Automatic annotation (TrEMBL):
<protein>
    <submittedName>
        <fullName>Glycosyl transferase group 1</fullName>
    </submittedName>
</protein>
<feature type="transmembrane region" description="Helical">
    <location>
        <begin position="92"/>
        <end position="110"/>
    </location>
</feature>
<feature type="domain" description="Glycosyltransferase subfamily 4-like N-terminal">
    <location>
        <begin position="23"/>
        <end position="188"/>
    </location>
</feature>
<keyword id="KW-0808">Transferase</keyword>
<dbReference type="InterPro" id="IPR001296">
    <property type="entry name" value="Glyco_trans_1"/>
</dbReference>
<feature type="domain" description="Glycosyl transferase family 1">
    <location>
        <begin position="194"/>
        <end position="351"/>
    </location>
</feature>
<keyword id="KW-0472">Membrane</keyword>
<dbReference type="GO" id="GO:0016757">
    <property type="term" value="F:glycosyltransferase activity"/>
</dbReference>
<keyword id="KW-1133">Transmembrane helix</keyword>
<dbReference type="InterPro" id="IPR028098">
    <property type="entry name" value="Glyco_trans_4-like_N"/>
</dbReference>
<keyword id="KW-0812">Transmembrane</keyword>
<dbReference type="Pfam" id="PF13439">
    <property type="entry name" value="Glyco_transf_4"/>
</dbReference>
<dbReference type="Pfam" id="PF00534">
    <property type="entry name" value="Glycos_transf_1"/>
</dbReference>
Length: 372
């Protein structure tokens, strides 16, 4: 059986970014599916990689684009992806993973034209996130987007979501649909515990990932300003990077984004990692890749965001939540003073990655759900 895997931001293992789709596609293939991936790149091309057939359609996109240019890029991908998929014969199923919401619209249109069913994966709550963040101001357009979201859910055969609060949200809209919650995954082979720090080096906290408005990294810089005894590494790219570099204090160091194997080597010099989001309720539902990579590397997790990740790290004693610089100061002290406590929390982080979020376990759940 042939499955079309539709993901605008698909990444190979050698590229920076989320590799969730790569993992799932590999497991689908092991279960006997013929997998063809539709994604975007600056240049159209066809690539064969580990028996996966990857169609790249030509769409330019960068996080630095303003909202209108992003929207044009989304619509451009919609048109070109539909055109590409219409030429592919004998499709049994489409697996469409958001964002943006237009991914679901592609699957919906193809269902009507080609009579091909689809599974929809909800990675972020669109349109709720851009609406809460003020990107969509028109009430009429907001109502249209919520209507479209509901139509996409209603027409899906099944739905996969990436966090428990996402599942609650989607179930309120389509309570009759089969819904599976599978968060992002820890790659416990690429990421593993290492400590290459020398005895006299400072306590070091790493942030890695996107530097967009949703990440609100100015909150991390406020913490760094009050803690000259701690070194902060910010690794990645994004629309806010230049501004952050201009206002950062001396003990904050910026690095370009790294492939995962290089990132694991950098984390060998860190004690903790930081998960940061702006204060919007919809962002509390996110399933941030950096969290799963960080715990696989066996590092203390620090987050400034309420929600299910906060509850998780408190339950498994592998990190802490701090909303303000003052709260951070209070909660970081035990780990600065007691290396055995830090080691315990780091061990707990790795255990959580291995036992709960291991990609082998989670990919199997998704593939079984799709195939049933």
């Amino acid at each position: 059986m042939k499955i079309i895997y539709l993901h605008q931001y698909f990444k190979l293992p050698t590229e920076n970014g989320s590799h969730r789709s790569w993992y799932i596609a590999q497991f689908l293939q092991k279960k006997g599916w013929e997998v063809e991936i539709i994604t975007a790149s600056k240049k159209a091309r066809l690539l064969f990689s580990d028996n996966l057939k990857i169609h790249y359609v030509s769409v330019s996109y960068a996080q630095e684009m303003h909202f209108l240019r992003r929207t044009i890029a989304f619509l451009n991908f919609l048109i070109k992806a539909i055109h590409k998929i219409l030429k592919i014969p004998n499709i049994s199923l489409i697996y469409a993973t958001s964002t943006p919401l237009t991914i679901g619209l592609i699957a919906l249109i193809l269902k009507k034209i080609k009579k091909v069913p689809y599974v929809f994966e909800v990675r972020d709550l669109w349109p709720l996130v851009p609406i809460e963040m003020g990107y969509v101001k028109s009430k009429i357009f907001q109502r249209f987007l919520f209507w479209l979201e509901k139509k996409i859910y209603q027409n899906a055969e099944k739905i996969v979501v990436l966090s428990p609060p996402m599942e609650e949200y989607v179930r309120r809209i389509v309570p009759e649909k089969p819904i599976l919650c599978v968060p992002n995954m820890s790659d416990c082979e690429i990421f593993f515990p290492q400590n290459k720090k020398k005895e006299n080096e400072p306590f070091r906290i790493a942030y890695f990932g996107s530097m967009g408005k949703a990440n609100a990294l100015e909150r991390l810089l406020q913490v760094a300003e009050k803690h000259p005894e701690i070194e902060f590494w910010i690794i990645g790219e994004g629309s806010e990077k230049k501004k952050l570099q201009q206002i950062a204090s001396q003990k904050v160091y910026f690095f370009a984004g790294k492939p995962k194997h290089e990132l694991n080597e950098m984390l060998a010099y860190a004690d903790a990692f930081y998960v940061s989001f702006a204060e919007y309720p919809s962002l509390e539902t996110c399933s941030p890749n950096k969290f799963f990579d960080g715990i696989a590397a066996g590092k203390l997790c620090i987050t400034n965001t309420k929600g299910w990740v906060k509850d998780l790290i408190e339950k498994y004693e592998c990190g802490f939540y701090a909303d303000s610089p003052d709260e951070f100061k209070e909660k970081i002290q035990p780990f600065l003073q007691d290396k055995s406590l830090l080691q315990t929390y780091q061990n707990n982080a790795r255990h959580l990655a291995e036992k709960v979020f291991n990609k082998e376990i989670l990919c199997s759940k998704i593939v079984d759900f799709i195939s049933a």
